[in-house]
Amino acid sequence: MKTRTMSYVIVCLFINSLFISGQTFTELNIDIPNLFSSKVEWIDFDNDGDLDIFIGGGHLNASNHNAFLYRNDNENFNDLILEIQVGGNAQFSWIDFDNDNDVDLIIALQENTILLYENIGNDQFEYRTIYLNYYSCENFQWQDFNNDGLADLLFSGRINGNNRISLFYNGGNDQFTLNNQFIPLISSSIAYGDYNNDGHLDLVTTGEFKRDSLRTILYTNNGDNTFTQSDPFFEAIVSGDIKWADINNDGYLDIIINGIMNTNNILWEVKIKIFKNLNGSGDFEEIPTNMDGTKEGCLTLGDYNNDGNIDIFLSGRNISDVPVSQLYQNNGNLIFTLGASFSGSSFSKNNWGDFDVDGDLDLFLTNIEAETKSKIFRNEIASPNTIPTSPINLTTTVIQDSVDFFLGCRTRYRNTS
């Protein structure tokens, strides 16, 4: 089924610009709603080579959530392709679920119901329902955790009246097998990434283990549908976000956490912290930072100035409970400096994406304080991200049915197909 509404908006440059360390972000005038508790994704649903915009969430004080898909038409977002109204607390995700080389929309509702909007091309979507054994969904992500070519569901919420963090393995034909070996956490955040470079996606979870007791847990994927649990002995958070990223460019994914944490036995401090991955060993070392953390928002990562370092964008409420949106520049020496502040945003998942295909990351903001519309900020950097030169010192190692590719001494790619 496809729902299509046509609307037309002239997109023009806003008269004000933000100057950030010698570069400019320019606000576009767009007619995309400002949604509460929302998910934003840049996706090329029509495979035309430019990023379209999806936003799903609720209007303030409304019981239902809405989802909107806008086509990027020569940098104009005037074509509303898909509009869906669902119940409250819906969760949204895009992935190529059926492996047909286009992205599909998946919506998790309450009480066992997953809606799959299958992208069949020509702006058409067909939906069907998948029923799974859960009651309420707090967070869900799709990724192939067992390398079988099918997208599995990583889930946190309630199952049979109990809080759970679970992995539903996709067996094909809408059949899933539940893996319930993870320790349940409340108000949790989950991230996946291959922290030890073995070709398998690992997990890190953080949240409230029991009343006033927070916990962060690392799960190492053993490659046989089992995980080994360890506690890396650093702070945990609630009402925040956790992400993997190679902050120091050493070839290993580090951990960034942002939210409310219990530091030095003081509960409910609003902090952001970075933990350096010590060569994939499972041990991590805290990197001191002077960044101001946020709660009830999101942590968004990307190299906005094309210097090869991952920068950090934070939105949410600061320690004074004021909505903020702040961009911190990674100077390449594990030092971050505040580049600029945007319109304050909280309870939303903002995102980077190169919508104008000019080689730099642009920013989408939603659930902005005292606004009725979301905002897009075009990145006007003078030096775009150019195509890299061919790799040098390429070596390969064949181990049974896998091949390891080594580029120089830092970058490693594994092909296990």
Overview of the molecule:
The chain is mostly beta strands. The chain is 0% helix and 56% strand. The two termini are 35 Å apart. The model is unreliable at 1-16 and 408-417 (pLDDT under 50).
Keywords:
disordered C terminus, globular, five-stranded antiparallel sheet, 0% helix, mainly beta, five-stranded mixed sheet, single chain, 417 residues
Task: Outline the fold blueprint.
Layout: E1 13-20, E2 23-28, E3 36-43, E4 52-58, E5 65-73, E6 76-86, E7 91-95, E8 104-108, E9 113-121, E10 124-131, E11 136-143, E12 152-159, E13 162-172, E14 175-179, E15 186-193, E16 202-210, E17 213-221, E18 227-230, E19 237-245, E20 254-263, E21 266-277, E22 284-287, E23 295-302, E24 311-317, E25 323-330, E26 336-342, E27 348-349, E28 351-353, E29 362-365, E30 375-379, E31 394-399, E32 402-407, E33 411-415
Parallel strand pairs: 3-27
Antiparallel strand pairs: 1-2, 2-30, 3-4, 4-5, 5-6, 7-8, 8-9, 9-10, 11-12, 12-13, 13-14, 15-16, 16-17, 17-18, 19-20, 20-21, 21-22, 23-24, 24-25, 25-26, 28-29, 29-30, 31-32, 32-33
Structural class: mainly beta
Mean pLDDT: 83
Fraction of residues in helices?
under 10%
- Number of beta strands: 33
Poorly predicted runs are: 1-16, 408-417
Report how far the terminal alpha carbons are from each other: 35 Å
Strand order of the biggest β-sheet: 1-2-30-29-28
Main beta sheet: 5 strands, antiparallel
Name the overall outline.
Answer: globular
